[in-house]
Design a protein that fits this description.
Immunoglobulin-like; 4 domains; mainly beta; Jelly Rolls; single chain; five-stranded antiparallel β-sheet; six-stranded mixed β-sheet
Length: 718
């Protein structure tokens, strides 16, 4: 096993997931089955629904003396075994293999016997840790390729100071899951144990073990597995140690269907996709729908239906009562942007010609002299995505984009500005929330991060936390710290924890403050905070055509009717409402109604049809669809059932039109579970993709096929 030099690590980083998959496959390649035990063979003694018994003989180890950071170590290696583990723990040989198990079985492992030898005089090196240091703040590491991986070897003292053999188990159960219709469990072999205090190693050259099964839900009746393709049957034969017995336990997974058949109603043609990227009241006019291709002169507007995320949402259609959509008629709906790490664009689906659609309720808002609410609690969110750190935190679902970082003494402070208008001048208590990701970690200091937080140069609190964890804290401060107009949040890193370094990445801030009912740009999103009957006076409008909606339930907004508009230096909207809990409202002039980004007729697809079948699926972007057809024809000529799929159809059917790589995963899972046998064996993705889904860096690269990002531990590649 060679040492991972800096150049080698950079090479791995470029190869990325492909190398990881190759390394993983090599780690789990099964030992050869044999009736006679050889240097790297395992003997299967029993395999049935009660248990699996096997034994193996481990080859002798070899020793290499290495110098690491001025220390002398002995590195062990065994033919056919890899080195790896948790950074800081002893780096020892390990190997794994997969056993097929019956569905519903719970595996329990018992070591029936071992033969071992004990040898002294060893010092085993720790598993290296690979880090990406903070770059020069004057240069962008992503755009300029300035990442410089650092490899460090730090003994974990909790392990190295303990007078006990590590690892504690010679054999252990790992992950479990399914390979196609084959259920499996992973078995890990640790043939060498090491006592760091005494310098002893225990080499287990013979191991006999038993994996017994229990059935907490009772023995499941087997649903016959489908005929497996020859290609995958060969894979299973190579990877499943007890292949012959286990193939009788293959069980077809339960079909993956939509929650209800109605959840696909939005796809029934004709259906029009409406894209939006901000929250607000949207208007679709006669001209808008005519330009999109709707037969506006013949359709019945009472049958307009609008869907979002598979469910119908309430709309308002002006002039629909006569069953005609006239030139002056229009459709209103409350649209919301999508807020995921992949996109801000949401899709609404417009249909007509079937049942009458869901409509907004109307509520009388006639002001009758109730107490007036003068302020409401508002929240401003400050966040900019400028830096991407895939390993902070080591969680796939987490936000890996950050604003910037602090790194005393070179970058001890950062400031973040926001504009607040028409804020209350009364005495109130505000809240400051912060999300900051720790990057550095010093095991000898707790806590090893400290920041001071300021609002407009007024100290509001300290932030203490430890290691590569997220700081999520909240601090109160008086509203008098805020000013009309520009406000600045500042962080200061005093560098006083005693840690070797204090480095963190800023994600976002939020300020809860008290606002007045004053429109900005003829629009205001506001709330009624306290239960009771209240009269709301919303001023600052430049025109009298003001409308107000209750958008507490975004899918079912309510029109507030009979509100009063009074004129003066500006126009003021007055309405009354009785509320039992907090309500959300939007008031705006008609000029502030939004227009969607696009209205496009959907091209029907039928990926959910259970009559589909394919051996070879090509998923591509529409830009490359015609170019991949010759390949599809070539595979068909080889006897494979082929299907070319537009990735947009995948989004439309499996994520309601929204750009999301999870949709590709879900489509393939659905096809595997529901399409006619033999189920698909090959998938080809055609089109480039990158991790900057929202083009935060402004490079402008198109994500034709978005990557399905997964966490990868560099140390596993050692």
């Amino acid at each position: 096993m060679f040492m991972p030099t800096d150049n080698w690590v950079r090479f791995l980083a470029r190869l990325g997931l492909a190398v990881f998959l190759l390394a993983s496959a090599m780690f789990f390649l099964p030992m050869r089955r044999s009736s006679a035990i050889g240097d790297d063979e395992v003997r299967l003694l029993r395999s049935d629904v009660q248990s699996i018994v096997l034994d193996l003989e481990v080859p002798a180890y070899s020793v290499e003396t290495v110098e690491i950071e001025g220390q002398t170590y002995q590195r062990l290696s065994i033919k056919g075994y890899g080195l790896g583990g948790t950074p800081g723990y002893p780096e020892l040989p390990q190997r794994g293999f997969l056993l097929g198990i019956p569905p519903g079985a719970r595996a329990r492992l018992v070591v029936l016997g071992t033969e071992s030898t004990l040898t002294r005089g060893f010092r085993i090196p720790p598993v290296p840790e690979i880090r990406v240091p903070i770059p020069d703040s004057s240069r962008d590491p992503i755009l300029e390729g300035l990442f410089d991986f650092q490899v460090s070897f730090n003994e974990n003292q909790a392990v190295y100071s303990r007078d006990a053999f590590f690892p504690s188990l010679v054999v252990e159960i790992g992950d479990s899951g399914c390979l196609r219709d084959q259920h499996y469990v992973q078995v890990l072999i640790n043939p060498v144990q090491y006592n760091p205090v005494t310098g002893e190693i225990k080499h287990h050259h013979y191991i006999k073990l038993q994996v017994s099964f229990s059935y907490p839900q009772g023995r499941l009746s087997l649903t016959p597995g489908r005929v497996e393709s020859s290609a995958f049957d060969t894979v299973l034969q190579n990877f499943i140690l007890n292949y012959e017995a286990a193939k009788a336990w293959r069980s077809r997974p339960q079909p993956k269907l939509q929650a209800t058949t109605a959840s696909l109603d939005y796809l029934t043609p004709p259906s029009y996709k409406i894209s939006v990227a901000q929250d607000g009241i949207y208007q679709l006019t006669y001209s808008d729908l005519q330009a999109a291709g709707l037969p506006v002169d013949s359709l019945d507007p009472r049958t307009f239906q609008l869907f979002n995320m598979g469910s119908e949402v309430a709309i308002y259609v002006e002039g629909e009562e006569d069953g005609k959509f006239d030139l002056s008629d229009y459709l209103l709906f409350y649209g919301q942007k999508m807020d995921t790490k992949y996109t801000n664009t949401n899709f609404y689906w417009l249909k007509y010609g079937e049942a009458n659609g869901l409509r907004m309720d109307a509520k009388d808002g006639t002001p009758e002299g109730a107490d007036s609410s003068v302020v409401f609690k508002n929240t401003v969110h400050l966040e900019e995505d400028r830096l991407y750190r895939s390993n902070l935190p080591m969680e796939e679902s987490a936000d890996h984009w950050y604003w910037n970082y602090y790194y005393p003494p070179s970058v001890p402070t950062q400031s973040y500005a926001t504009t607040l208008n028409n804020i209350s001048s009364d005495a109130h208590t505000c809240n400051l929330r912060a999300s900051i990701q720790g990057s550095s970690s010093d095991s000898g200091v707790y806590p090893d991060h400290h920041l001071e937080l300021y609002v407009n140069d007024q100290f509001v609190g300290d932030a203490y936390w430890d290691g590569q964890a997220e700081y999520m804290g909240e601090h109160t401060f008086p509203q008098s710290y805020l000013v009309e107009g520009n406000n600045v949040i500042r962080i200061e890193a005093p560098n006083d924890t005693g840690a070797s370094s204090d480095i963190g990445f800023i994600n976002w801030f939020e300020i809860d403050y008290y606002d007045t009912y004053t429109a900005e740009g003829d629009h205001l999103h506001f709330s009624g905070d306290e239960a009771g009957t209240w009269e709301y006076h919303v001023g600052g409008f430049s025109a009298s055509d003001i409308e107000v909606f209750d958008v507490t339930d975004p899918a079912n907004p309510i029109r507030i009717i009979n509100a009063v508009v009074e004129s003066g230096s500006s126009y003021t909207l007055k309405f009354q409402d009785t509320i039992s809990t907090r309500r959300e409202y939007v008031a705006l002039t008609t000029a502030q109604r939004l227009s969607p980004l696009s209205i496009v007729l959907d091209t029907p697809s039928d990926l959910h049809s259970t009559s589909n079948g394919a051996d070879y699926i090509i998923i591509t972007h529409a830009d490359f669809y015609d170019e991949v057809l010759p390949l599809a024809n070539h595979r068909a000529a080889q006897g494979l059932r082929t299907m070319v799929v537009d990735v947009q159809d995948v989004y439309d059917e499996f994520s309601y039109g929204v750009f999301d790589p999870q949709a590709i995963h879900d489509f393939l899972a659905y096809a595997y579970a529901n399409w006619i046998a033999p189920v698909p064996s090959y998938v080809l993705l055609v089109g480039d993709g990158n991790w900057d889904f929202k083009d935060n860096l402004g490079i402008g690269e198109t994500n034709y096929i978005p990557p399905y990002l997964a966490m990868v531990d560099f140390n596993m590649l050692g």
